Amino acid sequence: MENKEALSTLNEIKEMMEKSSRFQSISGWSIVVVGLLASVVSAAAWLLLLPHADMAWLPACCSGLLINSPWRSSIAILVALLLLVVSFSTVAALSLGKMKRQKGAVRFDPSLRRCLIHFCVPMLAGGLLCLAMLQQGHYGLTSTFMLVFYGLALINCSHYTHSSIAALGYVQLVLGVVDCFVVSHAILFWWLGFGLMHVVYGFYFIAKYERQKGL
Amino acid sequence: MMLDGLNKAFESKARLGIMSVLMVNESVDFSSLKQLIGLTDGNLASHTRALEEMGYISAEKKFVGRKPNTSYTVTQAGSQAFKAHLQALEDLLKSVPNK
């Protein structure tokens, strides 16, 4: 057996191991879209929820937004949940589309299942924790918990998909931890993590994994 | 140049593929394996049977609804043999100078 042949055999083995154990159909554009959606929502939250601006232009019916009412916090929670659902659906829809282009059919294969489980378990725990904290009136650390648990979820599932997703996870984790020591800049940190970082990582992802392969 | 340790059982690409997939997955069913490696039913079945007879993989037949579904797992002997084969390939790379 020649040197070259041994090398190509080893490469094929490695490729097959990765292909069969890692989910490789995540859509890069969907990551960018999630970042843009998060940016729009954080801009809206910054404009409407912070008591710093002159809100005289708001119609009378919306004046409740100006004070710390239960109505205002339920709207914020509702918008956050809606953003979560829309973001997750966008990634799911575009990624399944990419899977169909790559493999010819959408299959709920072991790599997808493992990736999903390892992502969802920390997300679910973190999400419930956030809801419980909000219900008990502890608002201060919500953005920290969101960033930290999302970062952990990404690091956790990175073993079952493109490993560079771990880097995005570590950035979220660091932002979350820094956020809990800085008072009153929650929306800024939240935007840096969920908005800006997604857009940046999304374009990196497209350049690294999708551009050459024409996907 | 030929080295000891290269296992004849893993000479074909199909068998290398099957072993590679099974090494990193707890168990894989027939249709997933077929799709990953890109073989016909008959072809894959003959390779899995051969590996099974050598004791490198084990098959478990189940029924999902009414459809028969066979899933494969690598055995300890298979895992050792495959690792030895990989080691032999790597040794081969080291022993032959790159031109």
Question: What is the element string of chain A, with H for helices and E for strands?
Answer: HHHHHHH
| Beta strands of chain B, count | 3
Give the CATH H-level superfamily of chain B.
Answer: Winged helix-like DNA-binding domain superfamily/Winged helix DNA-binding domain
- H/E element sequence of chain B: HEHHEEH
Query: Major sheet of chain B: size, sense and barrel closure?
Result: 3 strands, antiparallel
Question: Could you characterize what this model shows?
Answer:
The complex is a heterodimer of chains A (215) and B (99). Chain A has 215 residues and is an all-alpha fold. Chain A has seven helices and no strands. Chain A has one domain (27-92, 108-210). In chain A, 74% of the residues lie in helices and 0% in strands. Chain A starts with a helix and ends in a 5-residue tail after the last helix. Chain B has 99 residues and is α+β, with helices and mostly antiparallel strands. Chain B has a single domain, classed as Winged helix-like DNA-binding domain superfamily/Winged helix DNA-binding domain (Arc Repressor Mutant, subunit A), CATH 1.10.10.10. In chain B, 54% of the residues lie in helices and 18% in strands. Chain B has a three-stranded antiparallel sheet. In chain B, strand 2 and strand 3 (67-74) form a beta hairpin. Chain B is elongated. The two termini of chain B are 15 Å apart. At the A-B interface, helix 1 of A face helix 1, helix 2 and helix 4 of B.
Keywords, separated by commas or semicolons:
heterodimer; A: 215 residues; mainly alpha; 7 helices; elongated; B: 99 residues; alpha+beta; Arc Repressor Mutant, subunit A; 3-stranded antiparallel sheet; 54% helix
